[in-house]
Amino acid sequence: MIRYCRRCVMPETKPDILFDAEGVCSACRHFENRAEVDWDARRAELQAILERYRSSDGSNYDCIVPCSGGKDSTYQVIRMLELGMNPLCVTATTDHLSDIGRRNIENLKRLGVDYIEVTTNPVVRRRINRLALREVGDISWPEHVTIFTIPVRLSVQLRVPLIVWGENSQNEYGGPAAAAEGQTLTRRWLEEFGGLLGLRVSDLVGQEGIEPRHLIQYTYPDDAALAEVGVTGIFLGYFLPWDGWANAIISQAHGFETLSHVVEGSMVNYENLDNVQTGIHDYFKFLKFGFGRATDIACMQVRRGRLSREDAMTIVRRHDGRYPSTYLDVPLDEILAQIGVTREEFDRICDRFTNKRLFLVDRSGELVRDEHGNLVKVNDDNVPA
Ligand SMILES: [Zn+2]
Questions:
Q1: What tens digit of pLDDT does each residue of 173-185 get?
Q2: Which residue of 132, 172, 270, 351 has the smallest Cβ count within 10 Å?
Q3: CA of 273 to the centre of ligand 1 (A)
Q4: How far, in Å, is the centroid of ligand 1 from the Cα of 304?
Q5: What is the pTM for the complete model shown?
């Protein structure tokens, strides 16, 4: 039986999460601790850091803001501009950019910033998508690598030491206390929590014709280079109370565009709009751990008192972990064709990464599916099915 947090709707199968004696998850406890935070002091701390890194004569950028063009990065840029910073916005091109994703990037530039987009070789990129899907069940692995490596590489090359990241995912999503309380993003944080699943960049060499020269942008700068420039990554979410929903509202007021319907497998229309492979990424999280994007968002809303636990459960039952037949209205077959995977192989890979203890199986041990190909969890809440 799957155990769920008694306060939000997160299952204990989520990696790095801990449940206490009262059955409450560590993400809920981290959120509770936010009430104790002196946000005025944190804001003053942020201002002092920005002052320290601001270019004294305007000859270089004050900071780098890694940007996907989503609601959070749009919000980060708005805040940096309000605080009088001159940021360089950096996008690591996503795996399969959607039309709305492109429009939101153009909108981000129109906030009034300089902007660099770094695109890795798309031919090699698709091979890595396919390889990572087959080997670690994560189509988005190259994206997880380059969203971290590319801004840090530019920080070194352009000698702009301060990088302003968004939230510390270990805080909102409940990682170990030391990692959750951290305000800086280091190589160690990246290796431990960046979602690399034990697959190293160097492991790719020699597979599918991939050579070291294809992997330049996937490589994190070495310690000497980081130290020489004094690269420092801070999480804005440590200094300002972080709320994805509020970020979306603020960003929309600055031209950010949302989808006309709830994103497939999610429960809102304002996030993960840029990469059409995200539906596959989120579905594999569901197959491995029994929760998807709808659960993540429902939990954040419950913690902030905007949704009752009961309503959250109802929404999760309705939306979470649906078979990704489309994402952002793009058909699955079209998404798979781009990376050279057939539907038959995709379904076999899904089966291979499914944790069969979390889903109903029939007498012959085959996974039970409804008419839309959706799996059925062994239990939806803390009661036997
Ligand atoms: Zn919880």
A1: 555 544 555 666 6
A2: 351
A3: 26
A4: 11
A5: 0.93
